[in-house]
Amino acid sequence: MNIWQPLKFSSNSRPILVDGEVECLSNSNVTLDEGDKSKSTDEGSLILTSYRLLHVIEQDGSRKGVALFLSLVSNVGVKSGFFQQTKIVLGIIPPAPQGASGQQAIPQPSSQADVLVRLAFRSGGHDVFLKQLRNVLQSKSWESRMSKSLLTTTGAFSTTSAGVGGIIRKAEQTERETEQAVSQSFTDLKALMQKAKDMVVLADRFRQTAESTATSSEKSEFGGLLLDIGVASVVTRQSAGAASYHQELARQLADVLHPHVEKAGGMLTLRDAYCIINRARGTDLLSPDDLLKACSLFESPSLSLRLRRFDSGVLVVHSLNRTDEQVAQDMRRLVDSKGPLGALDVAMQCSIALALALEQLLTAERLGLLCRDETVEGLRFFPNAFPSFQ
After folding, report:
1. CA separation, residue 170 to residues 199, 223, 353, 357 (Å)
2. Is 5 exposed, middle or buried (0-12, 13-18, 19+ CB in 10 A)?
3. Contact between residue 54 and residue 248 where contact means Cβ atoms under 8 Å apart
4. What pTM did the predictor assign?
5. Which string of b and e fits 357-377 if b means at least 16 CB within 10 Å?
6. How far apart are CA 246 and CA 111, in angstroms?
7. Taking a C-beta distance cutoff of 8 angstroms, is the pair 307, 270 a contact?
8. Do the beta carbons of residue 369 and residue 328 sit within 8 Å?
9. What's the half-sphere exposure (Cβ side, CA atoms, 13 Å) at 28?
């Protein structure tokens, strides 16, 4: 049975993590050898998470990868020679078949013989990776997730959980657990940092419940609140590696900022993006320089956002789904319905930054849909009626 599973990626080519999974460390230029030494993969990035080993390879501007659950690792060793490259050797027990009643996200090892997997670090760094790998294997973070899954899926039937009374008791128990999690999280800053990821997972569960019961307006309001909850696994220099830190940060920024950019009408000032991403990261704050460098890497074809500088010097994060023609048409419709407008009026109507509102009006003027009237009262824009006289 194959010990590797296909790795799924987000729309911006970031590996999709399972619930509760956190990135710990990453190394570039790593190859995998399984069993026969002649069967070697291409060089790629090896990412260690709290649950899995992820091997990501970039080819022709796209990404593909495989994942290995750490629950299958039986032993870890090192192989080196006088003229050989040092490798980390993993003893892997193939996963046991899962029946219809054992639908667990974390596979369990079988009784088959170990399969050897060798990790070759072409650019060095195996010592640090080995130390972190042993720490993760010792912590066994995946066991808590497995126990929760078993409790929710294979719990024994009892009369206390049956009927309307059982449903009420279950709801009361869930409410008590939620109140306990919230009270523990806000005891002090250290407890808040430890519970932050649990709160993000809890909020996502609320979202899934609300999608089946709430109205459309309630879903929209609750979705907006969840945009500010945070990121469970943030990209750091340690988790992504110094060489690929800004590239991975750019991918995560695209995932996090995309709904905010769409909500703002396709554009978001870099200042607003800085506030949003640092609020989502919590204590792992991002510097302005790192944000600018990461946003400048949005030019990758697989990312959905771009960093744009207007003639006035204003920097915005711009969605590929919104063209200048669409922005100009929106400004024209707004002026047609509300009458002559200035930048402040548009900013209040669209709930966007004043500088961004002015740039959108100037875009509509440049494309010939609006014309300006500049007086002592300020700059106001009118529908451009001159083409109708030709």
Report:
1. 20, 25, 46, 50
2. middle
3. no
4. 0.63
5. bbbbbbbbbebebbeeeeeee
6. 43
7. yes
8. yes
9. 11
* Encoded tokens for 201: 């997972």
Please name the helix (run of DSSP H) or strand (run of DSSP E) that holds residue 261, with its range, or none.
helix 245-263
Over 50: is that where the pLDDT of 72 sits? yes
The band of 365, judged by pLDDT with boundaries at 50, 70 and 90, is very high
pLDDT digit string, tens, across residues 165-200: 777 777 888 787 777 766 655 555 455 555 555 565
User: What tokens does 130 get?
Assistant: 């080995």
Question: What pLDDT is attached to residue 310?
Answer: 87
Pair 33, 40: CB distance under 8 Å: yes
- Are 40 and 31 in contact by the 8 Å Cβ rule? The answer is yes
d(CA 295, CA 218) in angstroms, rounded, equals 32
pLDDT band, residue 154 (cuts 50/70/90): very low
Residue 115 β-bridge partners: 92
Cβ-Cβ contacts under 8 Å for 77 (sequence gap 6 or more)? 88, 89, 91
What tokens does 360 get?
């959108």
Q: For residue 259, what are the CA distances in angstroms to 152, 209, 320, 353?
A: 32, 20, 13, 17
- Which pLDDT belongs to residue 198? 59
Tokens 């080196």 — which residue?
80
What does the block give as tokens for 238? 């340690």
The full length of the chain comes to 390
Pair 324, 339: CB distance under 8 Å? no
Averaged pLDDT for residues 58-71: 85
% of the chain surpassing 70 pLDDT: 73
First and final C-alpha spacing in the chain: 74
Helix (H, G, I), strand (E, B) or coil at 363: helix
